[in-house]
Every structure is written in C-alpha cells, then in structure tokens.
Amino acid sequence: MLLTLFDYLGTFVFALSGATAGVRRRLDVFGVLVLAFAAASAGGILRDVLIGALPPAALRDWPYLAIAVVAGLIVFFFHAQVERLKHPVQIFDAAGLALFAVLGAQKALVYGLNPLAAALLGTLSGIGGGMARDILLAEIPTVLRAEVYAVAALAGAAMVVAMDAAGLDLHAGVIAGGVLCFVIRIAALRRGWRLAVASLAGAEPKDDEAQKR
User: Fold this and answer.
1) What is the pLDDT at residue 207?
2) Residue 108: Cβ within 10 Å count
3) Cβ atoms 20, 74 nearer than 8 A
4) Residue 137: exposure state from Cβ atoms within 10 A (0-12, 13-18, ≥19)
5) Mean pLDDT across the stretch 105-129?
6) Distance from C-alpha of 181 to C-alpha of 18, rounded to nearest angstrom
7) Which of 29, 86, 118, 206 is disulfide-compatible with 108, CB 3.0–4.6 A?
8) Strand pairing partners for 194?
9) Which pLDDT score, from 0 to 100, does residue 114 have?
10) Nearest 5°: phi and psi at 201?
11) CA 20 to mean position of chain CA atoms
C-alpha cells in the first residue's frame, strides 16, 4: 500500500510539472490535461512494458488518469498560485523523477531483474515523464541537455538496489533513494552542475554570426 501511494504521488507531481509547462506555453485546457497525463504516465508505462507487467498500471487502473486530470485542472485554474513557487516545473519534475526512479527500481527487483538491470530500469522510468513532456512541447528533453538529470535518477535507483542487496527494508531503500535523487537534482539546479559537452571548433563564432544576422 505504501509503494502504491508513492506511485500515486509520483503521478501527481509529474502531472503538475506537465500541466505547468502546458499553461506556460498557452495550451488550452485539453492540451494541458493531455500534457499532464503524458508526463505523469510515460515513466510508469515504460517501466511496466519493460518488465512485462501488462497492461501497464497507468492504463489499467483508473486512479492514475483521475490523479493526472485533477493535477492538470488544479494547475489550469490556479496557475497563478502555482507560479508563486520558485521554478515550479523544476521542483515538481525533480520530485517526480525521484519517485519514479526508485519505484521503477523497486518494481524491477520484485519482478526478478538483476541489480544492474533494476537500476537501469529505474533510471528509464524516472526520465520517461520529463522526456514525454518536453517532446510534446517540441523541446530537446532535459535529459539530453547536459544537465544532471539521468545521473540523479541512476543514483536514486542504485541506492534502492544497494539497500536491497544489503538485506535492508525495501521501504527504507525507496525513501533513501528518493531523497538522494531529489537532493542531487535540486543541488544541480541551484549550483549549476552540468555534464561535459563536446567542444566543436568554430561553433561559437558561427552562432555569433547568426545572431548578428
């Protein structure tokens, strides 16, 4: 029951991030709800498909759709209050990333995957919602923009796997992994941590010339 509640919470916060991004891009109410559901369900659907838990919980159980719709309507009608938070999309996205990363790893372990596969599946399920949101908005996904995003998800998922291998309580591992992922992601945003980007000779002068034009 506790893990199911965590799954619902992850669905809710990712739906908030999707809906907030949709409102910022001036989508109508239907567009906001579609974006909310896509951001909320993509990670869970990816997780369930890869481990063979079919049909995916997000499509089989009505609470997932209901939670996404409620979160989308909250943002649509009360977006001014939501925007009072500092960087609301990033905060909600970090929370959703953490929850889905650890839940993906936990569910993979329950289905008998080996530790490495469980950690990787947790990472994939964590980044799925954010990627779906960004792709629908015609943006390069955050995970591909040199930000510490997938690394944070991998750290959280690895914590779950490590604590399970050590024989510790699974719920404690989920909580510890979620906190670790969230802290790393928020710290990366606040401190500007970024992964290395390839340096292309002559790229910057070309960009400057394009701006002058």
Assistant:
1) 46
2) 27
3) no
4) middle
5) 91
6) 19
7) 118
8) 147
9) 92
10) -65, 130
11) 14
**Residue 66 has what pLDDT?**
95
Q: For residue 146, what pLDDT is reported? A: 66
Dist. CA 129–CA 37, nearest whole Å: 9
On whether the CB atoms of residues 171 and 159 are closer than 8 A, the answer is no
Could you tell me the CA-to-CA distances from 198 to 130, 145, 162 in Å, in that order? 24, 12, 32
Instruction: Tell which residue, 163, 64, 183, has the closest CA to residue 106.
Output: 163
- Which sequence spans correspond to the domains of the chain? 2-212
Average confidence score pLDDT of the chain: 86
- Which tens digit of pLDDT belongs to each residue from 136-162? 999 988 888 767 888 999 999 999 999
- Under 8 Å between Cβ of 153 and 46: no
3-state secondary structure labels for all residues of the chain: CHHHHHHHHHHHHHHHHHHHHHHHCCCCHHHHHHHHHHHHHHHHHHHHHHHCCCCCHHHHCHHHHHHHHHHHHHHHHCHHHHHCCCCHHHHHHHHHHHHHHHHHHHHHHHCCCCHHHHHHHHHHHHHHHHHHHHHHCCCCCHHHCCECCHHHHHHHHHHHHHHHHCCCCHHHHHHHHHHHHHHHHHHHHHHCCECCCCCCCCHHHHHHHHHHC
Distance CA 199, CA 77 (A): 44
